[in-house]
């Protein structure tokens, strides 16, 4: 994808090489001087450097990619992955929280209940979607859609990209903790296949309220954590200067969580992150979803529920000695 983004701090060297390639290409075009060999050499160097850089990212660098302002959102994936989509609105108590969006979708010919957290890419969009931080009403809307999927035997797919549930006073007054807790309990009891994918940030109980699933996947450069590194640093060290230390200690990357058996798989992203080639990412995501739906659909409904329960009971189990 040729779109040029504002570089993250660790990407400066790549963009400097790309700027030089563009400069040489322009000079060659305008003067007729053959600079093909130099351009090819620089292009090869840029590719090798990018491959080395993005395969050895620190946790803090992965967090920057996961939070990139141009990273594809839930609705981006809806429009790229689905052949048909009908959004369902409201929690049936008078509110339609735009931080959680859901509805019935067709993915590669298969009907699913597709639910996700939605961030914005502009200030106006972020205000509309509350920066991807759901209120209790959003979780109640998701719960209504879980019940709908259960009634009509639809697999449930959730796409998660949230810094956490909205922590404001109003959210607490309207039952934020209870809304999330009820979702955890009710998702555990579902007898349809449930697949969750962390597409960006998956932080705290705000993410888990959509992630009690039979299979949980992460995009390559996403993060999944009980608390943000900034929050962890402020609690344990009383200092934002320890954010990078907290990020490493939390073990929040896809590779870390794969080793810890918290997730079932890692979905490949294009070089540099999902924002460089959203279509590639959407195709990888839809292939993983369809494969998982086909596998889980062969399992009896009661066993889906017991398997989901067992999956979460095993997380964190270890043997001493």
What does this structure look like?
This protein is an alpha/beta fold. It has 2 domains: 9-56; 63-314, 2-enoyl-CoA Hydratase, Chain A, domain 1 (Alpha-Beta Complex). It has 14 helices and 8 strands. Strands 1, 2, 3, 4, 5, 6, 7 and 8 form an 8-stranded mixed β-sheet that branches. The protein is globular. The model has no long low-confidence stretch (mean pLDDT 93).
Quick summary:
By secondary structure, this protein is an alpha/beta fold.
Average residue pLDDT: 93
Judging by the overall fold, what is the CATH architecture of the largest domain? Alpha-Beta Complex
**Approximate helicity band:** 40-55%
Give the N-terminus to C-terminus distance in angstroms: 51 Å
Q: Hey, roughly how much beta strand do the residues contain?
A: 15-25%
Global shape:
globular
Q: How many domain regions?
A: 2
Q: What is the N-to-C order of secondary-structure elements (H for helix, E for strand)?
A: HHHHEEEHHEHHEHEEHHHEHH
Name given to the CATH homologous superfamily of the largest domain: 2-enoyl-CoA Hydratase, Chain A, domain 1
Q: What's the gyration radius in Å?
A: 21 Å
What fold name stands as the CATH topology of the largest domain?
A: 2-enoyl-CoA Hydratase, Chain A, domain 1
Largest sheet: 8 strands, mixed
